[in-house]
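Let's sit down with a protein and look at its sequence and fold side by side. We need material for that, and I hope you will provide a protein of your own picking. Once you have written the record down, we can walk along the chain together.

***
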Amino acid sequence: EISVQELVQRLKKNSIIPGEKTRQMVIEKLKITDSDLEIETTEYKVSLHCPLIRFRIQIPCRSSQCKHVQCFDLESFLMMNEKKPTWICPVCDRFIPFDTLVIDSLYQEILKQTIDVEEVVFDSNGDWRKVGGKESSKNNSHKSNSNTNVTSQSN
């Protein structure tokens, strides 16, 4: 029997998606407009808390089959499926077998840079900023147009 830790290590080695892929998902989501209601969505909010355990995500994961950007905590998901194997996404309720799970590298980066917040908001360019927290969200805008995240400081 394979342990949860072995499964986590396997995914860390073989199944990490690049941040640019997540940014593209966000950009595509924000391109969709509801012309009937004339509503244009300009922001996409995601939680940094796992929908399963309601605590901060440690290893951000979702299935490659899922259409949402929202992640859940990999270890928690694997431990729950170890006890009662349903393999159901805690975000969209779709069946997600182990071999479709991916770790989101952009989400990992966001988690490292946002110790004091529970949510971030993406804009139509795929850039993100903190929502709430101890610092003003205007001072925490993260651009995707370079290899390193640029933090803009406005005084």
About this structure: The longest strand covers residues 43-47. Confidence is low (pLDDT under 50) at residues 135-140, 144-155. The radius of gyration is 16 Å.
